[in-house]
Amino acid sequence: MKDLKGIYAALLTPFNDDGSINFDSITKLVEFNIAQGLHGLYVCGSTGESPLMSEEERIAILRHVAKVVNGRIKLIAHVGTISTDSAVRMAKVAEQCAYDAVSAVVPFYFSFSAEAIKGYYKDIIAATSLPMVIYNFPGSSGFNGMLDMVNELIDEPKLVGVKHTSVNLFDLERFKNLKKPLVVFNGFDEMLIGGLSMGADGGIGSTYNFMGKIILDIYNAFNKGDMAAAQAAQNKANRIIDAMIPYGVFAMEKAILTELGIPMGNCRKPFTPLSQEGWEVAKKIAKELK
Ligand code: MN9
What is the overall mean pLDDT for the chain? Predict the structure, then answer.
């Protein structure tokens, strides 16, 4: 198994004007991310708008990205969804396409019991030979019991990591210090340095799609022990993220990348299109980054 640690873009999904997937832009975005020097891609996660896509569409993206990447960087397939059967089918595709790991958010909407959630993870883990990186995103999933859940699943040999998208860095540190060493990814880009300080092995983020260089500056400076440089780079990233938040982060990321030459389209409904004011801010950010 590959060492999974490092910096991954949570891959955005570009759409055409008619709402269909823009595979040509996926190819361009993947190449752009490889050129940025990122260590991997996290495919079909929240940032990829996976809850707004059909299983067939997600499978098509998993296949396309694997073909384009062709082993050059690490790949994690997010297969989480409300249905275990659907998640298992997507996990099997990820294995066929030689992904390095699968990942899954908890099944959402029904407030499933802890026992049901545990069964869901066991079923996905059992379906393939791939390692599992559990996706902890309490703010969106509503599930706050992930530390106990991971503790209960810790003896599953294929459970290898957690993607922790939460401002609770105490929990992040706890995930890192269970009885088996796990690979822990920081999930909020604006707190990457905080996550690394508490023991994270890397980060998975949406803004890494367009400002991977600044993010790699944080990571590399931190690993060298140069905290002043790491803080300066985080500060640079956070000024950009702060300017994006009022307009919708994914829509802004798509606009910035469109300005940088990769047509990304809008987010899928019910997300609303980016406002004119948002576009102006996106243009300014893209210009700064060029
Ligand atoms: O994958 C992303 N999480 C969500 C990680 O979007 C929920 C982050 O990269 C955020 O988009 C980013 C901005 O808040 O940190």
Answer: 97
